Amino acid sequence: MKICSLCKVEMKEGNFYQDGKSLRGECKSCIKEKRRTYYILNRLVIIDNVKEHYRKNKDKIMDYKRVYWNTDVFKENRRNRKHLRRTIEKDTDITSKHLIDLKSNTINCPCCNIKMIKTPNKPDSITIDHIIPIGCGGKHMKDNIRMICRQCNLERPKDGRDIK
User: Fold this and answer.
1) Cα–Cα dist 34/63, whole Å
2) Alpha carbon distance 6, 128 (integer Å)
3) Which of 48, 79, 96, 148 has an alpha carbon within 20 to 30 A of 31's alpha carbon?
């Protein structure tokens, strides 16, 4: 147990930040409140400083962003954010982890039995397929998706008439 030097409340040590090898004197909630108060009092100055920094370093920042936008990390993060947004908007039980597991565990296309590749936009690329298309009343659920090659996915009719 430790006493906060600002609010004088005794709390567990988990409520204090580590400062090197010892604990800080203020609890996490007091530090958060102090930061919030500082931001409220100095908001305009902080915003002006950020704008000034961006204006001075615009070329460096844009170069960094261009490089980052082309990395697989950014693309995967963007896909995960889109997926999370869609998951919240729709009634689904699919998580990003489930899709990653499904992609890594599926090696051959169940329709044509060719070996699928991870590179996007190639005929042998691995893609998500809704067994009953969403446009025909299918849901974005675990039991309605599978991984098939891009060629088979593009050849499937969009109205779902190949489903028996």
Assistant:
1) 35
2) 54
3) 48
